[in-house]
Design brief:
CATH architecture of the largest domain: Up-down Bundle
Shape: globular
Structural class: mainly alpha
Largest sheet: none
Distance between the termini: 74 Å
CATH class of the largest domain: Mainly Alpha
Helix content: over 70%
CATH topology of the largest domain: Sodium/glucose cotransporter
Number of helices: 21
Radius of gyration: 22 Å
CATH superfamily of the largest domain: Sodium/glucose cotransporter
Order of helices and strands: HHHHHHHHHHHHHHHHHHHHH
Length: 487
């Protein structure tokens, strides 16, 4: 191992064998299929138990954004970044509001995608297609954030021997290959392995930095002396931003199309609820731990640029490996698990895109097409979308955190169709469509104005563009709904 690399020849060989073994899991998933149907391929036959469902939810929700984006955000934001723990906790609360009822509907009406629910509930084609488009764009964005994370990790782990672009291209090929082999079953089996290893890896790096760099008191004193602004209490702008960020997670992350597919795939309602109950503890041992990594990184490696802060996790792992050579084997295991967990997240998003293209676009255009043909179309779409995402991950300069925010700005506009649609039976599709269209225009409009006129705030008055859009969305929805009720 060189001073520039976290992995020596043995470590690189282990990681390579480990990653390519995922193709074997994909093949096992292919052999285990029970029937050649969309439900079997995209929902694993609707038979996920508590253990598998919890770990596939965990591995999907916590991956590149957690290991790279959260630590980088904490490095840049100081102690205000503690809000990210509440950010992720709010998602579980949102699931409990709508998931059990959606699960019951999915079993009764055989839903495969979010589009199936929207079409059944509202019978409004324009609304269905709008939500499908928003979902595909958001999923593509989700893939993008994790591809960037994978590039940073492999580049740092190999000391630049494998470049950022090379890492993304090679690992993207592996993940799209095994995903198209076994569908949701392969993805879930992969997630079981990666979820366990990812949790162990997060705990490992948390305690390793406590041993190596000191505890909270030492870190706090260093930050206070060098960057006292990191301890400053939030002003009203920051408080509004905190609240906006929590709303962004509550209404955005909770309606991830691939998370909704996992709700459909649960064995029964009890299994679903128990999985969410376990998930409620994960922000404390995952998000909080990586926020602390960012804080310790700020104390130990001050002055990093915005792009440099995105790599603070890898910088600290590299420093620990040089100071404590005995940690080498554990670092190899952590890096392998982290990369594979990111891959599981990406293939989940790919699977969701595939199902949307197959079931909700091509399937509506060709309703007579056999399911084997539909599945093939979805696999082709996965390869095409992955190719575009790889290119964008390589060339776009935005940080992982900012890209994640953009995705959530759009997903928030889907939330009323689920949260309100499930609980208000007389809500009409035309009202939901009017609100979603207006909210999307507002959110995208604010982001576009900021892009064209950088002095215009991307978060006016400390509130995300997507939350402004959601407020307009719900207001117009209510206005149109009342108008329809009067006629």
């Amino acid at each position: 191992m060189t001073s520039d690399s976290l992995l020596g020849p043995v470590g690189l060989t282990f990681m390579g064998l480990y990653l390519f073994s995922l193709i074997g899991i994909g093949w096992a998933g292919r052999l285990a299929k029970k029937e050649n149907s969309l439900a079997d391929f995209y929902l694993a036959g609707r038979g996920m138990g508590v253990f598998v469902l919890f770990l596939t939810l965990y591995a999907t929700q916590y991956s590149g954004n957690t290991l790279i984006g959260f630590a980088g955000k904490a490095y840049r934001g100081g102690y205000e970044s503690i809000v990210m723990v509440v950010f992720m906790s709010s998602v579980i609360g949102a699931y409990f509001i709508y998931a059990p009822k959606l699960f019951r509907m999915s079993r009764k009406y055989k839903f495969i995608t979010i589009g199936d629910y929207v079409e059944h509930r509202f019978n409004h084609s324009l609304l269905t297609y709008l939500i499908i488009i928003l979902s595909i764009v958001a999923l593509g964005n989700y893939i993008l954030t994790n591809l960037k994370a994978i590039g940073y990790i492999v580049q740092a782990a190999t000391g630049g021997k494998i470049g950022f672009a090379q890492s993304i291209i090679v690992l993207s090929f592996i993940m799209v290959f095994y995903e198209t082999l076994g569908g949701m079953r392969s993805v879930a089996w992969t997630d079981v392995i990666q979820g366990v290893l990812l949790l162990a890896g997060v705990i490992f790096i948390f305690f390793a930095i406590q041993v190596q760099y000191g505890g909270f008191l030492d870190t706090g004193e260093i930050i206070r002396s060098r960057s006292p602004q990191a301890f400053a209490p939030p002003d009203w702008y920051a408080k509004r931003l905190w609240f906006s960020t929590i709303l962004l997670a509550f209404f955005g992350i909770s309606v991830y199309p691939h998370a909704i597919q996992r709700i459909y795939a649960a064995k029964n309602e009890s299994t679903l609820i128990r999985s969410f109950q376990i998930m409620a503890f994960m922000p404390l041992v995952t998000t909080l731990f990586m926020v602390v990594v960012g804080w310790v990184g700020l104390a130990q490696f001050p002055g990093l640029s915005r792009s440099g802060s995105e790599q603070i996790t890898m910088i600290m792992l590299k420093d620990i490996s040089l100071r404590m050579p005995a940690m080498g084997a554990l670092i190899v295991l952590f890096l392998s698990a982290a990369i594979a967990a990111i891959m599981s997240t990406v293939d989940s998003a790919l699977l969701a895109i595939s199902s949307l293209v197959t079931n909700d676009i091509y399937g509506r255009y060709k309703p007579e097409a056999p399911q084997s043909v539909l599945t093939k179309i979805g696999k082709i779409a996965s390869w095409a979308i992955m190719a575009v995402a790889v290119y964008m991950a390589i060339v776009l300069p935005q940080t992982i955190w900012r890209i994640m925010e953009i995705k959530l700005e759009l997903l928030c506009q889907i939330a009323p169709s689920i949260f309100l649609g499930l609980h208000f039976k007389n809500l009409k599709g035309s009202a939901v469509f009017a609100g979603a269209a207006a909210g999307t225009i507002i959110a995208v409009g604010i982001m576009m104005i900021n892009y064209l006129v950088p002095t215009f705030p991307v978060k006016p008055w400390g509130i995300h563009a997507g939350i402004w859009g959601l407020m307009v969305n719900v207001s117009i929805l209510v206005f149109v709904h009342r108008g329809l009720c009067k006629t």
